[in-house]
């Protein structure tokens, strides 16, 4: 007889929420995490000045209701991102010209969202190929491609247009997605959720193999075996496909796992003695048309003045291959060009390279890179009970975001609870 009701693999926000929901419903749950920490693509570090900062997922906005509720429930403190003053554009243009360009880019994004997913002319199209078909100025096209590289962290030549349009329809915020962050760090929120799980969470437990049958599942962690009635793989698709399964997954599931590519991103914290950009009536944001996939913003709070620089897509892949010292010099030179010499003299620079991360595959989220894989998300969401797949990438709301991870965790937990009860099964505790 299986030892537990449900085993969950992966203690990112999806796994943490699924485990919490199932435990609260009275089910016997074990959450296994390969690393020595929880959070998945959310993590943190402590800088030399003692300030703890998020090195992974960090920002959110008020249009993300599940995350907002979780923040309130766990007593963490939202901080409004600094937004007073002008944005710097590179190449240099006036703030009015820069904003006019980005309004045009946003309009093109709305055009993408409004496309008919059943239009046969869109079948097999890449994002880059779709942009080439649009009658738009060259700078708008380049701005949109920059946006794709920065937000979805892959080259537009590699991303399925049908996938991106579907994905973006589910990102429904009207407020700026970098509107807020947590004073205590987003990672601390993950830790608070994990603390409530107590003995149900096991760290440093890397699952490598899943045996499954209608009677239950057994997962392997090194030489240990754990059994349950069901297993939830709360992992990005590129990580789930690394596991071995006996028997092999149905062909449709294997194909659905194979079509994803990991996002490539590097996050750089640059700490200063003061937020000098504010003296010049600047908000700390920099939008670069070139190099594409680069963006900076103010992440100061309390007595910590600092900027965050995001590098996404092919540019992140390129810098992944070079020494961190060269990347630091590159970033500081760009910031000095944007803000003046003081920007080139930070107190500390912290680089978190997520490209080819061994546990997540990359960052912010996986994307579909096969151009005829329209049903991959649907197939994975169906799973092959007693094996279930859940991750932010598969969420019906805010895929690729922390909000999406929470939604995915609640969705899979609700499904598992329903199937237990429809099958006449009851929690072990009852």
Task: Tell me, rounded to a whole number, the average pLDDT.
Answer: 96
User: For the record, what is the CATH homologous superfamily label of the largest domain?
Assistant: FAD/NAD(P)-binding domain
CATH architecture of the largest domain: 3-Layer(bba) Sandwich
Instruction: Let me know the number of strands.
Output: 20
Biggest β-sheet description? 8 strands, mixed
Class from helix and strand fractions: alpha/beta
Strand content: 15-25%
As for the number of domains, it is 3
Helix content: 25-40%
CATH domain class of the largest domain: Alpha Beta
Number of helices: 13
- Within the CATH hierarchy, at the fold level, what is the topology of the largest domain? FAD/NAD(P)-binding domain
For the termini, the CA-CA separation is 16 Å
Descriptive report:
The protein is an alpha/beta fold. The chain has three domains: 4-40 and 187-260 and 368-422, FAD/NAD(P)-binding domain, CATH 3.50.50; 44-83 and 176-183 and 262-353, Polyamine Oxidase, Chain A, domain 2; 94-169, Guanine Nucleotide Dissociation Inhibitor, domain 1 (Orthogonal Bundle). It has helices spanning 13-24, 65-73, 95-113, 127-133, 138-152, 161-169, 186-197, 237-240, 251-258, 314-320, 324-339, 376-382, 402-422, and strands spanning 4-9, 29-32, 44-46, 52-54, 78-80, 86-90, 180-182, 201-202, 207-213, 216-221, 224-233, 244-246, 260-261, 265-271, 282-288, 294-298, 306-312, 348-353, 367-368, 387-389. The strands form five sheets. Strands 1, 2, 8, 9, 10, 11, 12 and 20 form an eight-stranded mixed beta sheet that branches. Strands 6-15-16-17-14-18 form a six-stranded mixed beta sheet. The protein has a two-stranded antiparallel sheet with strand order 3-4. Helix 3 (95-113) crosses helix 5 (138-152). The protein starts with a strand and ends in an 8-residue tail after the last helix.
């Amino acid at each position: 007889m299986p030892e537990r009701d449900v085993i969950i693999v992966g203690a990112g926000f999806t796994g943490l929420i699924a485990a919490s929901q199932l435990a609260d419903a009275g089910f016997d749950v074990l959450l296994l995490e390969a690393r020595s920490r929880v959070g998945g693509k959310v993590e943190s570090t402590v800088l030399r000045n003692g300030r703890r900062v998020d090195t992974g997922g960090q920002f959110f906005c008020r249009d993300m209701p599940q995350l907002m509720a979780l923040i309130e429930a766990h007593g963490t403190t939202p901080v409004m991102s600094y937004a007073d003053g002008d944005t710097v554009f590179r190449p240099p243009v006036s703030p009015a010209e820069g904003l006019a360009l980005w309004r045009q880019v946003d309009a093109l994004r709305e055009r993408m969202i409004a496309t008919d997913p059943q239009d046969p002319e869109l079948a097999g199209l890449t994002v880059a190929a779709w942009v080439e078909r649009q009658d738009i100025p060259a700078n708008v096209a380049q701005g949109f491609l920059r946006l794709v590289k920065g937000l979805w962290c892959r080259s537009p030549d590699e991303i399925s247009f049908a996938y991106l349009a579907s994905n973006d329809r589910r990102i429904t915020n009207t407020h700026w997605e970098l509107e807020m962050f947590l004073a205590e760090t987003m990672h601390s929120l993950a830790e608070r959720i994990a603390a409530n799980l107590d003995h149900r969470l096991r760290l440093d437990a890397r699952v490598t193999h899943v045996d499954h049958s209608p009677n239950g599942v057994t997962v392997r962690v090194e030489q240990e075996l754990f059994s349950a009635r069901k297993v939830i793989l709360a992992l990005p698709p590129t990580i789930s496909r690394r596991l071995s399964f006996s028997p092999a997954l149905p062909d449709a599931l294997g194909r659905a796992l194979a079509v994803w590519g990991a996002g490539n991103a590097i996050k750089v914290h640059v700490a200063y003695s003061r937020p000098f950009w504010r003296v010049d009536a600047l908000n700390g944001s920099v939008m670069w048309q070139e190099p594409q996939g680069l963006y900076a913003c103010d992440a100061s709070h309390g007595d910590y003045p600092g900027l965050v620089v995001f590098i996404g897509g092919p540019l992140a892949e390129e810098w992944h291959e070079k020494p961190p010292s060269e990347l630091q010099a590159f970033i500081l030179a760009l910031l000095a060009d944007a803000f003046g010499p003081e920007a080139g003299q930070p107190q500390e620079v912290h680089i978190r390279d997520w490209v080819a991360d061994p546990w997540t595959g990359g960052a912010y989220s996986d994307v579909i890179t096969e151009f005829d894989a329209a049903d991959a998300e649907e197939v994975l969401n169906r799973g092959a009970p007693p094996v279930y797949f859940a991750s932010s990438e598969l969420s019906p709301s805010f895929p690729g975001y922390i909000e999406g991870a929470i939604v995915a965790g609640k969705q899979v937990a609700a499904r598992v609870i329903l199937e237990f009860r429809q099958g006449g099964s009851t929690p072990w505790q009852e």
